[in-house]
Amino acid sequence: MYLTEKRAEFADATLRSHRSRLRHFAEWCDEQDVTNLNTLTGRELHRYRLWRRDDGDLSLASEKTQMDTIRVFIRWAESIDAVQPDLCQKVVSPTLTGDDNVRDVMVDAEEAEQILEYLRTYEYASERHVCFRLMWRAALRRGAVVALDIKDYDSGEQSLQVKHRPDSGTPIKNKSRGERFIALSDDTCEVVDAWLTDQRPDVTDQEGREPLLATPQGRPHPTTIQTYLYSVTKPCFSTGKCPHDRKIKECDAAVDRTKASKCPSSLSPHALRRGAITYWLSSDFPETVVSDRANVSTEILSKHYDRRSEHKKMEQRRKFLDNI
């Protein structure tokens, strides 16, 4: 009932996130034989929080996200008399300070160029090559890559148009505010042109649209894009070496691309986007240019994406201040 009501309010990605987080809560209720939320107490919600904390992979920021979602859910449950009044006030969520809510994990420029060189040599114009190049060169979000149609690409003008099309199954983050044109380089257009000419499957999606990045089944699912990124960012993919002293031929993450996320060094689409934005900023691109191209506010850009050191920022400012 909660997810159905929130469908009109949340973007699809947000709805999926809430469904995923609440699945943990449902699992805990099942383990604790909680079959009626009317009897739920603040003490039990605290036990749930400790149960989630027992997951060793849960950071403080992730714990806060989990509990904040529970609070939103409980507040909604109060509105339909499904829980005790004011129970949402008893949901305890950690307070983040300093950089607790900022992640530094990213694909750096040297790693990205090494991966691109490998793809150019051994998988030229493949789906993984096109996907990685667009996400690195244009800092596209996963959802934006999924949403692209062939008609959104203009080879002559060397551009991409990112569009919000919720009615036909491809919403994008920030909705209409996320729509934009993105300029592409000669090299990127050559890769995309080769993909469209020689390798792209001749398919449409369920809406009859022609996705730019396609699989034999049609438009790729967001998790497919995630799998592409995990599979090419594991170190053994482009270097042939494992920093974790695993035998590559015996490692599931190495030999099965669908299990690449199990590699401790493989990285997500967000880490690639963070790396691309940091690279642009480190290359003296103006913040407003980076903000517009990546579709992210300057405030969020600074807090969540800019991983330059303070010393690096000082040296960049020096170039503009020598004559003052």
Class inferred from helices and paired strands: mainly alpha
Estimate the helix proportion, in percent.
Answer: 40-55%
With strands numbered from the N-terminus, the spatial order across the biggest sheet is: 1-2-3
Order of helices and strands: HHHHHHHEEEHHHHHHHH
CATH topology of the domain at 109-233: hpI Integrase, Chain A
**Largest beta-sheet characterization:** 3 strands, antiparallel
For this structure, what is the CATH homologous superfamily of the domain at 109-233?
Intergrase catalytic core
Mean pLDDT: 86
DSSP E strands, number? 3
* CATH architectural designation of the domain at 109-233: Orthogonal Bundle
Distance between the termini: 62 Å
Percentage of β-strand residues:
under 5%
Quick one: overall form?
Answer: globular
- Give me the number of helical elements: 15
Report the C-alpha radius of gyration, rounded: 22 Å
Supply database-style keywords.
324 residues; mainly alpha; DNA polymerase, domain 1; globular
Outline the structure in words.
The chain has 324 residues and is mainly alpha-helical. Among the domains are: 2-90, DNA polymerase, domain 1, CATH 1.10.150; 109-233, Intergrase catalytic core (hpI Integrase, Chain A, Orthogonal Bundle). The chain is 51% helix and 3% strand. It is built from 15 helices and 3 strands. The protein has helices at residues 2-6, 12-31, 42-53, 60-79, 109-122, 127-138, 142-147, 186-199, 222-233, 235-239, 252-255, 269-282, 287-294, 298-305, 310-321; strands spanning 153-154, 159-162, 180-183. The chain has a 3-stranded antiparallel β-sheet with strand order 1-2-3, with no helix packed on it. A hairpin with a 4-residue loop joins strand 1 (153-154) and strand 2. Helix 6 (127-138) runs antiparallel to helix 8. The protein is globular. Mean pLDDT is 86; it is low at 98-102.
